[in-house]
Amino acid sequence: DIAEHLTPVLLDDLREESLQLVSKLKDSSSSCAVDVSTVWWEAAGSRELCVVTACESFVSLWKPLAPHCWGKVYTWQLGEIPVIQLVPLPDTCNLVCIALGDLEIGEIRLLLYSSENDSLKQSLVKTGNIKAVLGLRDRRLVSSSRTRQEQQVEIVSLSETGRTRDGQTLMPPEETVLAFAEVEGMRDALVGTTAVNSIVVWNLKTGQLLKKMHVGYSYPTSICHRAYSDSGLLFVVLSHPHAKESECCGNPAFRVIAFNPRTARSRGVVFSSLPPGHAGRQGDVTGASAAAVLTSGAIAVWDLLLGQCTALLPPDPAGPWALARWATTGACLLAGQRDGTISLYRY
Amino acid sequence: CSESDLGPISLNWFEELSAEAPP
To answer: Is ipTM > 0.90 here?
Structure first.
């Protein structure tokens, strides 16, 4: 009967063995790691899950050479605009998508390798004042961008060679869209979270804006990570990077909220809070697992269905953790330090 | 979650909202 409850988290209960260090890679030329991700890469008939590391001015692809050993195979040099984010593309092979900009995204580019002339290529997908971007199934990208007068929400399809095909626009809400999530199990549904803390739902096929539902004032600037539909309800996983600690709820990091899209009413289902004594977080979600870098330099991992913190990776002696991303497949956590060291943990 | 909290639930909410929303 308790819609939203705080599960007490005791650090003693956290099973350190739930995260097992598998391997490390270190880019000796790097001193400014900004993001890490994984991508499927096929070469000479062999398809492998590779690691992509991004610094401000270059992006590198790392292949597994031997067990627990990674080798850098390609490095794309970028121009004057710094890389600020890698954009994972689900179900895609041999394509790396990056967002570049200063304080916010100004460009989206694709990076690829051409075997025809043995060269590394870059392809410009979009420019503008881009507020959010997400890679969708079937080699598509959705983004929101603002001009002074209006907001544009656009989907572009990408070819295998990195060319962009005709775009499709979605009806924009009045407020700025800050994050997107595909609705799992519903091919044509997409959700977004906005600057005034609303969830919006689109029909991807028709571009219609179907519903706008308010998340509530307790958790400002909520960010959607995952969404799925079940039994007539829309479940959305939200993170709350700026929520303040409260007596009733502790320090909220993630919530699963059930929305009834017919009535726009909602209820919290599971609540995941920060471990006691920790603050600040920048999170990533895969399946029912969430990970976040805390301001202490530790990484916390939660089971979102239980609402429990399941692992806490203390700051590495060589330097605090700065990045926490899930690999696009398998239960693998990519933990990064600013000096370019990436540690792969099995979860 | 129950209907008393969230109002009438429809399994076909996506199709229904698509039929009702402006094109």
So the answer is: yes
